[in-house]
Please model this.
Amino acid sequence: MLAINNIEVVYDRVILVLKGVSIEVGEGSITTLLGANGAGKTTTLKAISGVLRSERGEVTKGTVQLAGRRIDGMRAHDVTRLGLVQVFEGRRVFEHLTTEENLIAGGHVKDAATVKQGIDMVYSYFPRLKERRAQVSGYLSGGEQQMLAIGRALMSRPKVVLLDEPSLGLAPMLVEEIFGIVSRLVKQERLSVLLVEQNAAMALTVAEHGYVMENGRIVLEGPAAKLRDNSDIKEFYLGLNEGGARKSYHDTKHYKRRKRWLS
Amino acid sequence: MSEDLGFFIALMLNGLSIGLMYSLIALGFVLVYKSTDAINFAQGEFVMMAALIGAVVVAFNTSPILGAILAVLVVLAVMIGFGFGLERVVLRPLLGRPIVAVIMATIGLAAVLRGLTPIIFGGETRALPLPIPDDPVVIGPATLPPIQVLGAAVAIVLFAGFSWFFKKSRMGVAMRAVADNQQVAQAMGINVERYFALAWAMAGIVSALGGIVWGSMLGVDVQIAVVGLKVFPVVILGGLDSIGGAVVGGLIIGVVESLAAGYLDPYVGGGTKDFAPYLLMILVLMFRPYGIFGKRQIERV
Model:
């Protein structure tokens, strides 16, 4: 559905942030992109959705294809029109608009009837938003804002959703609830999701396929089940030891161990 | 009714109608600030431009009614075009730069317009007569100049229109979304640049109508641009991003000016109406730094 082929991203014409990243997102499934802070995950998403331009970044090499059509170099609002939408990290709802107005703004590229249907669809997936429909969204709780951010993205009836750290700053129960809804959306609406997460354990449970990123490169990829068993992933992203038990930081000198993919 | 009370009511009504006319110009600020976050320091010059073009068109026509209608249409067309063009030529290259760059650009624009105007139109004060009756409108103890009543009416109609637009229309909601967060708005498929252009064009509409009523009241020359400065306390009082705030701010400033002129001027020899609004502005800012209706930064704790 979405194919990123060997892209390179440069900020301000000099700073090379992504160095030959290739990612494939299958239709109707979740693909996850893992990595530490500053690895280039968010930049990857922005490069795909086209908002990079407003931050003076540029895709200088490689291609991004949405359902076979090249979208790199397109402007963000045109990309959205074609059916790809990004949900930003840290919620970023339109704070001064009400819940419903946020949804209306999210459906900007669709006609009035589709917007109306879309609002009903979003409310059916996120019933909590319906209760809050007339409230100014800046005053919603963190979980509700995340739901709104996802729901608002759905309003453009996308085929591909880029989901940037939906678990950030939320209670574990809420994280589970939101991931449950996202999984349902993927199945029922045949959405393709590219999920960026710090919560690797959660991401590898819901995803079918995963990529690991470090310093602007993909260093590891594979089916999510396989990645869960990879000893490096266990050690550095899941916090488990070789046997699978929870690692205690008392009895490991984890700095002794080198990540094998680096050598 | 006692004479004192009558005097007070007359001052109030005069202040309210002038206040609405201030709000009209203030609306130009608000529209631009709301969607682009930039303060348009050339707002007064927009008004001046509109008034001048209006005066020229009216002078060309022999029939006053036809002339006035034509003037309104021409001025509207020119100012809308000017708003669009300005966004395209001056402001779009500044997109993504610090907002100060845009503000500086409007200051520069103001200087250019003020400098060019006497060269093109000459320095003399022109009349901008409108086909309205000359007799003052009598409301209770107050007698108001008809142009003031017309200005107030125009302001009310525009406010109602824009309020509806921002609350109820999808375009208006999109415009507020752009104001809230440009990057996210873009990702939602909203063409941010187009909405910026629309905001400037809307400021053009307001300036066109504001220019015609103010020009008709004061006479048209470069000095009319000062109106732009006078509405600063209005927008700051009301909150830079609130249409309702522009109305209330305008009404308060109008009333304060009128009361100051009526009650204080006899004692100090005049001139209080020029600084009373600023004094009030400073007082309000002490207690509500975002203005009376301005949007607060929402911080959840």
Chain B touches chain A through 24 residues (CB under 8 Å). The mean pLDDT of chain B is 88. The longest strand of chain B covers residues 137-139. Residues 3-36 of chain B form the longest helix (34 residues).
